[in-house]
Design a protein that fits this description.
- It is a single chain.
- The longest helix has 19 residues, at 49-67.
- This protein has one domain (3-148): Thiol Ester Dehydrase, Chain A, CATH 3.10.129.10.
- The chain has helices at residues 49-67, 136-148; strands at residues 11-16, 21-27, 72-84, 93-104, 107-116, 119-132.
- The chain has a 6-stranded antiparallel beta sheet, with helices on one face.
- The chain is α+β, with helices and mostly antiparallel strands.
């Protein structure tokens, strides 16, 4: 995880486009590895809830991209029912699991949960507005980022 770059996920563990599901993983940086923890909170470093929401949004955002064969991009449009169920600390290893529950009319809606050692730490429903990439170079940059995350690309079904 690279908080300063908003690269919240370390890798894509699994994607099943047919089942519309995804799993991702990340390790929260040590407190001395990220200035985010200097102020949140001094002497008691804690992962900010808004960054857990970003982890969930990136997880199902990658799934929404895959379902669209990376032809259009998901833009965060809404977060519903977000819950932080447990504190998350530097060094924690997290796994996120999400699935798409709706696609259509230019929107995609997904549900996602974050877990630490199998126990829930957060969950939410995320809505994306699906928009065209602004240019081919941006689309290529996103595909390269996906490759760094070990995204399991598969040929589209025809």
């Amino acid at each position: 995880m690279r908080l300063e770059y908003f690269q919240m996920l370390d890798r894509i563990v699994d994607v099943d486009v047919g089942e519309r599901r995804i799993r991702t993983a990340c390790t929260i940086p040590k407190a001395n590895e990220s200035p985010v923890f200097e102020g949140h909170f001094p002497g008691y470093p804690l992962m900010p809830g808004v960054l857990l929401i970003e982890c969930m949004a990136q997880t199902t955002g990658w799934l929404a991209s895959a379902l669209a064969n990376f032809d259009i991009m998901p833009i965060l449009a809404g977060v519903k029912e977000a819950k932080m169920r447990s504190a998350v600390f530097p060094g924690d290893e997290l796994e996120f699991e999400g699935h798409v529950i709706h696609e259509g009319s230019g929107f995609t809606v997904a549900e996602v949960k974050g877990r630490r050692q199998g126990k829930g730490v957060c969950d939410a429903q995320i809505t994306y507005r699906m928009l065209p990439y602004p240019n081919p170079a941006f689309r290529q940059a996103i595909r390269e980022w996906a490759e760094r995350l070990q995204f399991p690309f598969k040929e589209p079904v025809k």
